Amino acid sequence: MDSLKKKIRRRYIIFTSISIVLFSLLFFTVQRHITIQKDDAYIINRSGKQRMLSQNIVKQLLAYNNNFSSLNIRKRDSLVVNKLIKEFGQSHVYLVDYYKKLHNSKKLDSLFSIVDTNHKKIISSSNLILNSAETELINDEVAKLVEAEDVFLDTMDLIVFEYQYIAEENLKKLQNNFYNLMAVAILLLGLGFFYLLVPAIREMIAKNEALKDSNSALKKTKEEIRNNLVELKRLKEDLEVKEQFNKIFIEQAPPSLAMLDKDMRYIAVSKRWKKDYGKEDIDIIGKSHYEVFPEIGDEWKAKHQRCLNGDIDTRDEAPFFRENGSVQWLSWDIRPWYLEDNTIGGLLMYSRDITSVKEQALAKQRIDKILKRTSNVARIGTWELDMETDLLTFSAVSKEILKLPENYAIHSKDSLHFYKEGVSRQKIIDAIYNLIKTGKPFDIELEVINEEGEEIWIRDIGQAEFVKGKCVRLFGVFQDINHIKKAEKELNHKNELLNFAEKANKIGNWQWDFKTNQVIWSSGLYDIMDREQNEDIITIEKFIDYTYPEDVERIQLHVKNTIENKKFDGELIHKIISEKGKTKIVQVLGKVFTDDDGEVASIIGSYQDITHIKDIEYSLLRQNDLLNFSERITKTGHWNWSVVSNKIVWSDNLYDIMEYTKGSVDVSSHTLLDITHPDDREGVQKHMQKTFEEKEFSNELIHRVITPSGAIKTLRVLGRVIKDENGEIIEIIGAAQDITSQKMAENKFKGLLESAPDAMIFLNDQKRIHLINKQAENLFGYTASELKGERIELLLPERIIENFKVYRDAYFADPKSIAMGDNRELIGLKKCGKEFPIQVSLSPLETDEGFLISSAIRDITKQKQVERNIRNSKENLELLAKKLKTQNAQLADFAHITSHNLRAPVSNLNSLLDMYYMCDKEEDKQDVFKKFQKVITHLTDTLNTLVSALKIKKEKASLSSVDFSETLKKTKELLAAQIIETEAEITSDFKEINKISYNKIYFESIFLNLVENAIKYKAKDRAPKIHLSTKLIDNHVVLEIKDNGLGINLDRHKHKIFGLNKVFHRHPKAKGVGLFITKLQIESLGGKIKVESTVDEGSKFIINFNK
Amino acid sequence: MDNTLNICIVDDDEIYKFTVVKILESIDFDKKIEVFSDGEEAFSFLLDNIDDSEQLPDIILLDINMPVMDGFQFMEEYIKIKPRVGKKITIYMVSSSVDLNDIEKAKGISEISDYIIKPIKRGQLKKIISGLRDIGRI
């Protein structure tokens, strides 16, 4: 479409451009020809004018020549002539020029050459005429002029003609050109029409056509849609109507009809349906078919599914086993119903409850069967009694039965002797009488006596024929049922015996005729049910009704299963409530009989009252339960292997242990081997062999089994063999215990033991080695077997054994009193005799194998080493720290001293200085000056003390042996005055230590300072008592100096007691220097001083000289 | 109450006490000066006059380092009896100690108005007195 458009556009462009070119050409041509025509006309005109000019010239000249007389006129004429000549000349030039432009006419060439010549002649003649006055000449010239003029005129005429001819030619040319061009134009238009317009039009027509087509299509579709809608609506309405109709139809339908949707939910059901299936009280619409009838089996469901896929299922008759255990006989027709689109919308079910029909049919069938059987087996004869003649005739068989001769005939009234007197005779009389009177046929069994005097049993069936209400004839059949009767009698007898047996064993039996739904009980069963034996029909429902309510469901299920599987599974033990309301436990066994079609025909079975058995069983069960329970608790099971049959009976719990369902396996010795762990199989087998060889179950067998779930269990098996009188094993009984967890625990314990980082040794209560782990083997160099049973002392060096025994015995005596993990360090002894330090922690352990003591032993050689190193470095560090601390304290002291003890006097000096300048009076100044002296003295003292202190610190004093008694004596001498003054009493006790190596000066200074202090700070109310003593504490020499003085309030002053210039009493001589220096001296030699004091009781200075 | 200012100097340094008394005497105001050689003496005085505001000091210039009971111990005891003292007492710690421990400790006791490092100048004493006068104590 687009390409066509493009093509058309291109053509159109070409066409337009060609047209433009053509029309320009046309225009140009016409224009050109007009110019040519104009030129031609002009030139013709000009040529004519030239001719006229020449005539005018000649005429003027002639006139000029004739008018001689007047000069004026002549002059005027001459001017005119000149003017004309001039114009004539100019025109000539123009003509010649024009002609020269043309170049194309030979004729014109010659004509113009003539014209040219004559023109010149005219000009020259004219000029001569005008300019000359001679008449002759003039006349001559005039003649010449006239001649020339004639020629000129003629020639000019010819030229004009020529030009006219040329003009005509040109016109003709134009005409031709025009026609040509017109022709081209027409051609072009034609082409344009064909190449451009036609396809364009064609396209347009085509488009138009398409548009028209689609329009009509659209219209058609619309129409269709409308039609469809209408149709749809109609269909919908139809459908609704139909569905409604269907529904109503179904609901109102007399037969049993149901309409179900695809999911088997009810859409509509007829009342009959509800009635047939006993669902009248339930609103089943919308419910699932299977919800309404849970008894529907999978087989039927599958059928329904097939129907939903289009099948039609019809069945003339089939039993429907209802939930309550009854049987309904149905015929049905199940077919799908279709939706409008021919898809299946669901199912239509038509069914008919033909139970009653079926029952009738079955009854008929029974009769037929009897007839068939009788006709086959029995000997049947007929009889006929003509009522009018009273003649009784017998058929051949009848005669045979009665052993009558061939032609025997008898009147009925004489025939009574056939019937045995008593019951039979009375029976027949009554039957005949009834038959004649009411027409009711009879079927009775009678004892007759034949001609030979034998008593035989016959069955007599009689009917009557009435004509107009009057009995005209009786007829019937005789059947020899003697052998049947005999058999019956025998059966009865046997039955009686059976009944007796049943009664004795409380057994009954039953027979459920499936088709009649009737159950026949034996008398034993009646007895069990405590029910009078009578003719009442017992249905299966009635039978089930006796069931104890709790068991009903189970029984119904069993019945259902039995019918479905066509097999009576196992034995059914349940409780019943008898007629008399007794609860009994019965055991029911049964067997299913099927008919030729394989359908269930009857089920017969036994029924045993096992109440008393059950009671015994129950008590047994209880005991068994107890056993089971205890087995379960101990994870034990018992077994019984009957060797002859190779059958092993497991207890319930053993089944549980083995993870088998009871009864799912027939256990034999092979089974046992199969489930045994492959690694243990050989062991088990060997054990079995051994048992059989030795005829004794050798000691316990521990083996693993793999259960169906894949679990591995460890069993401990014990057994005992039972032998017959020949000593052969007939049975082995025993118990198996699941000791998996113990085993696991043991394994775990062993694993833990082996993976323990420490060597572990277990001692038993005999204090002997019971168990050791690998680490212990490695540690001591013994193997486990070497050590087992040995005394632990083997692993200890002799010298510590005595000590160890004490500890060990204490532990054994009361393990709990010693904390777990009480690490004791001992010395171990390797097998190679090497000793090494060990750390032992003990803990008691209560195990299956008795009381054990576990000991974890660790080689601590390395720890010891490391510990030693640590202790050493710690000691070094402590020493260093102490030193640093001392130095720090000293530094702090000095800082304090400089900050206070030196600053104080200096600041005083400053103050005094200020004051000194302030004082006006001389005496005041003197006063102040005295103060200066005081301060300076103080300052000097302080500086001296500091200097000596620094000396003490800096210099290591030289040592020599000093004597305590000597020094005290010397001190007393020095302080004699004070001692006497204060009546001080100084005692001493240097018995233990009297001499040490010390710096003598310090030593004396310490004595002096401390004793002096003791005297100085005496109590006011008592004489000082001072006691000095020495003793050795931790290898250190200690000196104590005790007094009964003022004491020091240590709470307040402890921190500064040894400080410089610290005083604690308002004693005039207290300076706070003595103790400061003393402490420095003692400490410089590595000693210590400390003080104990109570205010008003006294002080005690304790000096530790440190070695 | 009269305008007499009770000033109490507690110090064991005789020279210092001498100089301070002299300076105070040179400042013109009504005063009564009590001098004690250690904390205990001063504290006993306070206890004896606990109800006698006329005897109780307005200002205490307290030294740190003293025998028997030092400045800090005095403060401890004073804080205990303070609620019973019938007068507002301004206490200045005056010591030659430039030990930061001492200064910090003194600053930590709210009853101590300021810590003055010896030697105490005349100007400082004048300022203290005029300060008290400003707040209307005199």
Description of the structure:
The complex is a heterodimer of chains A (1107) and B (138). By secondary structure, chain A is an alpha+beta fold. Chain A has 7 domains: 2-213, Four Helix Bundle (Hemerythrin (Met), subunit A), CATH 1.20.120; 253-358, Beta-Lactamase (2-Layer Sandwich), CATH 3.30.450.20; 377-480, Beta-Lactamase (2-Layer Sandwich), CATH 3.30.450.20; 505-609, 2-Layer Sandwich (Beta-Lactamase), CATH 3.30.450.20; 616-743, PAS domain (Beta-Lactamase, 2-Layer Sandwich); 756-859, Beta-Lactamase; 956-1104, Histidine kinase-like ATPase, C-terminal domain (Heat Shock Protein 90, 2-Layer Sandwich). Chain A contains 29 helices and 34 strands. In chain A, the strands form 7 sheets. Chain A has a 6-stranded antiparallel sheet, sandwiched between helices. A 6-stranded antiparallel sheet of chain A has the order 14-13-12-17-16-15, with helices on both faces. Chain A has a 5-stranded antiparallel sheet with strand order 2-1-5-4-3, with helices on both faces. By secondary structure, chain B is an alpha/beta fold. Chain B has a single domain (5-134), classed as 3-Layer(aba) Sandwich (Rossmann fold), CATH 3.40.50. In chain B, 40% of the residues lie in helices and 20% in strands. Chain B contains 5 helices and 5 strands; from the N terminus they run βαβαβαβαβα. Chain B has helices at residues 14-26, 39-48, 71-81, 100-107, 122-134; strands at 5-10, 31-36, 59-62, 90-95, 112-117. In chain B, strands 2-1-3-4-5 form a 5-stranded parallel sheet, with helices on both faces.
